């Protein structure tokens, strides 16, 4: 549940600097008394201000509440198997600085958090923001996360073994700012809910087609938060009958053990004369587009596996829309289009009203969601 203060600031932001106290109370669902108290505090500390309006006609003029976007900044860091992205947003949650870099190979916990801190400090410097204006930091990681206790249980595609329980507190202590951590797809789903092309839809699913295959969901306007003991949207580890590929999670037959980008390359490379040319899932996709039979055969199978995962997400959560992201999700890509075809084959009547698209938030989707999570948790 969002805290009352966040509900009020959201209402002021959504009011685009023209909402009166009355409208803020109505739009936030916060009672008049509670809203009044919080608005007074926010005015006193300068987080919001009132815009003077010329009176129109009789009666008291409407006094709009405005956000002072520069009073606080939030960082979002998305640690993926291959790339790490970082963004800084202001209180309007608009991105002020963003950058992307290669993820460093995992060795041990101390080195890992030290590296995250280096990424943060270096980006902070480039952003030009003052250190003490950053309120908090949200981290998204491609792994299994206990967000409540700030622990990374595992991240197979990053080489972080099961039960590692890396403590985000180590990073928070190093940078001197509060920090929270979630899975990539939890952050992605929240980003889509607030900032994506389907923003505001109460039921959404996100699907990441990358090194791993992941999924997140917003159900009845509530972000579903995955936990190691009750995972949400772990479609990458749905077991596919007759799939004999071994997964980083230790099981055999997981969807991503075949469809994950790195695994596709490993399966495909030996089948090509010039194996070294098959460097990524994208290369394979380009070959399939050019009607290469071997590439098509491999990607057709990957698409049919992906479809099982996505169709099951649709069966579980009945989303109005499914939004794809990741290196394997390309609008005119062979795998993406083939995956949509396979999903259509699997979906029973009535479920096929779901809309499919690729995120408009681009590669910073989860980093933006992570910044929003920092704001919700700590501001
Ligand atoms: Zn698995």
Bound molecules: zinc ion
Q: Portion of residues in helices? A: 25-40%
What is the residue-mean pLDDT, rounded to a whole number? 94
The description of the largest β-sheet is:
5 strands, mixed
Measured between the Cα atoms of the first and last residue, the distance is: 14 Å
* CATH superfamily grouping of the largest domain: ATPase, nucleotide binding domain
**How are the strands of the largest sheet arranged?**
5-4-3-6-10
CATH-level-2 architecture of the largest domain: 2-Layer Sandwich
Compute the number of structural domains: 3
Shape: globular
Helix vs. strand class: alpha/beta
Binned strand content = 15-25%
Summed up:
The chain has 379 residues and is α/β, with parallel strands linked by helices. It has twelve helices and 15 strands.
SSE topology:
Elements: H1 4-14, H2 21-28, H3 32-45, E1 48-50, E2 65-67, E3 73-79, E4 83-89, E5 95-102, H4 109-127, E6 134-141, E7 144-146, E8 151-154, E9 166-167, H5 168-175, E10 179-183, H6 184-195, E11 204-209, E12 213-219, E13 222-223, H7 255-259, H8 261-268, H9 281-289, H10 293-317, E14 321-325, H11 334-346, E15 355-358, H12 365-378
Parallel strand pairs: 3-6, 6-10, 11-14, 14-15
Antiparallel strand pairs: 1-2, 3-4, 4-5, 7-8, 8-9, 11-12, 12-13
The chain binds zinc ion (ZN).
Residues 237, 247, 249, 251, 254, 257 line the site of zinc ion.
Please give a structural write-up:
The chain is 39% helix and 20% strand. With 379 residues, it is α/β, with parallel strands linked by helices. The strands form four sheets. The chain has a five-stranded mixed β-sheet. Strands 13-12-11-14-15 form a five-stranded mixed β-sheet, with helices on both faces. A three-stranded antiparallel β-sheet has the order 7-8-9. The radius of gyration is 22 Å and the shape is globular. 45% of the residues are buried. The mean pLDDT is 94. Bound molecules: zinc ion.
């Amino acid at each position: 549940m969002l805290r009352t203060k966040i509900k009020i600031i959201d209402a002021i932001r959504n009011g685009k600097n023209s909402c009166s106290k009355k409208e803020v109370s109505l739009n936030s669902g916060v009672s008049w008394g509670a809203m009044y108290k919080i608005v007074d505090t926010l005015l006193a500390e300068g987080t919001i201000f009132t815009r003077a309006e010329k009176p129109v006609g009789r009666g008291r003029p409407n006094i709009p509440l405005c956000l002072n976007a520069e009073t606080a900044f939030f960082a979002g860091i998305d640690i993926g198997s291959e790339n790490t992205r970082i963004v800084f947003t202001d209180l309007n949650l608009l991105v002020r600085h963003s950058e992307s870099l290669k993820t460093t190979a995992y060795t041990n916990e101390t080195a890992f958090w030290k590296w995250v801190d280096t990424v943060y400090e270096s980006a902070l410097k480039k952003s030009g923001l003052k250190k003490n204006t950053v309120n908090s930091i949200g981290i998204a990681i491609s792994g299994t996360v206990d967000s409540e206790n700030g622990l990374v249980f595992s991240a197979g595609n990053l080489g972080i073994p099961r039960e590692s329980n890396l403590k985000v507190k180590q990073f928070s202590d190093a940078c001197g700012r509060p920090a929270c951590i979630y899975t990539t797809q939890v952050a992605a789903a929240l980003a889509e809910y607030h900032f994506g092309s389907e923003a505001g839809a109460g039921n959404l699913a996100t699907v990441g087609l990358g090194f791993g295959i992941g999924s997140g969901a917003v159900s009845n306007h509530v972000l579903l938060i995955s936990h190691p003991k009750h995972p949400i949207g772990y479609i990458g580890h749905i077991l596919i009958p007759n799939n004999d590929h071994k997964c980083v999670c230790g099981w055999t037959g997981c969807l991503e053990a075949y469809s994950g980008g790195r695994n596709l390359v490993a399966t495909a490379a030996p089948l090509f004369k010039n194996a070294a040319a098959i460097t990524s899932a994208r290369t394979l996709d380009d070959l399939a587009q050019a009607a290469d039979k071997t590439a098509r055969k491999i990607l057709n199978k990957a698409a049919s596996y992906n479809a099982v995962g996505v169709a099951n997400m649709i069966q579980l959560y009945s989303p109005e829309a499914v939004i794809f992201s990741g290196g394997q999700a390309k609008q005119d890509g062979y795998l993406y289009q083939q995956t949509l075809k396979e999903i259509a084959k699997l979906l029973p009547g009535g479920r096929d009203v779901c809309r499919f698209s690729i995120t408009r938030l681009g590669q910073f989707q989860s980093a933006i969601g992570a910044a929003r999570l920092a704001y919700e948790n700590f501001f």
